[in-house]
Amino acid sequence: MRxxxxxxxxxxxxxxxxxxxxxxxxxxxxxxxYDVQHIRNQAKAFQSAFSKYPSLTWHVAYASKAFSSIxxxxxxxxxxxxxxxxxxxxxxxxxxxxxxxxxxxxxxNNKTIDELDYALNVNIGTIIxxxxxxxxxxxxxxxxxxxxxxxxxxITPGVEAHTHDYIMTGQEDSKFGFSLVxxxxxEAVKQVMNSAYLQLRGLHxxxxxxxxxxxxxxxAIKNIYNYLxxxxxxxxxxxxxLNVGGGFGIKYNNDDQPLPISTYIDAIVTTVMAESxxxxxxxxxxxxxxxxxxxxxxxxxxxxxGSYKTIxxxxxxxxxxxxxxxxxxxxxxxxxxxxxxxNKANAKDTEVVTIAGKCCESGDILIHDxxxxxxESGDILAVLCTGAYGYSMANHYNRLPKPAVVxxxxxxxxxxxxxxxxxxxxxxxCSYSQEPTH
Length: 438
Ligand SMILES: Cc1ncc(COP(=O)(O)O)c(C=O)c1O
Ligand SMILES: N[C@@H](CCCC[NH3+])C(=O)O
Prior knowledge:
By secondary structure, the protein is of the alpha/beta class. It contains 12 helices and 21 strands. It folds into 2 domains: 6-35 and 298-426, Beta Barrel (Lyase, Ornithine Decarboxylase, Chain A, domain 1); 52-291, TIM Barrel, CATH 3.20.20.10.
């Protein structure tokens, strides 16, 4: 769970110098709150880790799938990050936010022709090609325009990161990328090296998410170099850019032991340098694309407690005014979170309760066996570390409107995404009945 919690003289949890109880009064609940200083610190941690290697060219792209909004993309730009997008919608958000297209990388295992077309129209910096169909589509679109585009090839390095099955991506049996082992990656390199339009700058891999050690990164890099060395001899291919993806872990709770950002970067850089040296190749640019570690611990969700149900000898359920619609991760990955009673933040944790969401689904449990102080309806619960894949995976199940998002910093709050209304929920519905609706 994120470091020290700040509590004011009223015994209220504060974030970025702002009283969380006041935030709920002002913006309602549930409410996502981002501590902007924390985001700044994380971006700086990457930049200072890389700056230890002055001869190296590197880029840190914020993986906007973790939390995409106009304000967040603008903040990423202000912090000197590039941007990773995985859909036309994330790209549109970035362009709307004024993010420089040349610093955007476009990912995805099934980019549509329309999405590729859009990316070329805005002069995107790099397209990370995932499969042979995409090579064909992109070649066709570039030829039509008589315009080249920078590309990386996403390869699966055959490494299994020790994480949840649904969020590991670098293993052989994956929907993403070209396999090194079965020869698909080599075939892709040959195809794009023959293209007049697809300018192959290098390779990309991403071994998974919420990773707590450096072994997977090192192994992936070593595997890649074995192939790079062959391709240098056989194909005269030289890799200018090696993008090793994201996946750096964060501390959702005390079971999680992430490494300092500099430890991951040192391991990545020294392995790339050693492998380049061993295979007598120039050191490529190193790109990383963290999402979770940039915004995860910066985010907190504030809820109001509502109903209670005690089953004697079994458990006490306490329900909040949100749930799996604003945080899908516990239901999807059995993800574990911790919580603080925000309006009684100095009180002792004397109760063990199960924090339930309000969706019509027995699996809508945000936290099993949460330790919190004695609470009552109307209290405010802060669920910590919800900044990554919270709002971005929020949904309208049971027609719950999506919560608002605020940024806080230096004692000030700023609304960055408005709360949805019931009207918003039916905005795109069309009437079936002949009678006018109300
Ligand atoms: C290709 C790619 N890059 C970057 C990320 C960001 O990962 P994380 O949020 O774990 O840093 C992901 C998500 O796992 C991804 O699939
Ligand atoms: N959405 C996932 C991670 C997948 C990241 C994208 N490949 C999570 O919440 O942990």
